[in-house]
Design a protein that fits this description.
This protein has about 220 residues and is an alpha/beta fold. It contains 8 helices and 7 strands. The structure holds zinc ion (ZN).
Length: about 220
Amino acid sequence: VYRRFLNIYRSIIAQVADLLFPRSCLGCREQGITLCRNCLKDIPKPEKNLPDWTRALFSYKSPLIKNSIWRLKYKYTYDIGKVFGELLFEALTKEYYNAQSSETRSIYLIPIPISKKRMQERGYNQARLLTNAILSCDDSGIFKDGTHFLKRKEMQSRQSHTKNKSARLQNIQGSFIPGDPLPPQSHFILIDDVVTTGATLEEAKKILSQMGACKISAYAIAH
Ligand SMILES: [Zn+2]
């Protein structure tokens, strides 16, 4: 109840702030939106290779992307989530959905869960925000909400304080637990804001595999 109240409160604050200080693009200062699609056209793709089941739209080296993700994560800038949600929806549809295909398996989007502690600090999960933005673009119901399949356990130390990949992988081990049972013959796509070493996605994939998932992919905004 408290969280719901907090979210309503945040959304009222955001709307009042829009009236007082109209939004403008972080890239070109155009009025009306915090991040315009025109500015995203020239952002480079990620340089380093990701495992072939993982995709990211942009290079995290871009200051505009870094700034936008920071706002999405810590400032509840929901219109940034909407823009990224649209781009992720287009990329996901292009890659995984073919209307002519005979494949009938369901495609579930699973946002990477955050810990209760972080949820209390922030009041929302940015990966959930992105997933909801993708689902709201999806008028024909290609993708389903898979939020309830994966849960997060409380962690000893914060992921962002642990730098290298093996340390991160060790740190994240055991931090996800199974949620609802997985429907058979389905495709599960993990959604996150940033892929750094890929340790978080690998651990989430491991749990989904243990739960019986055969086809698992991941999509993020940046790497
Ligand atoms: Zn712009």
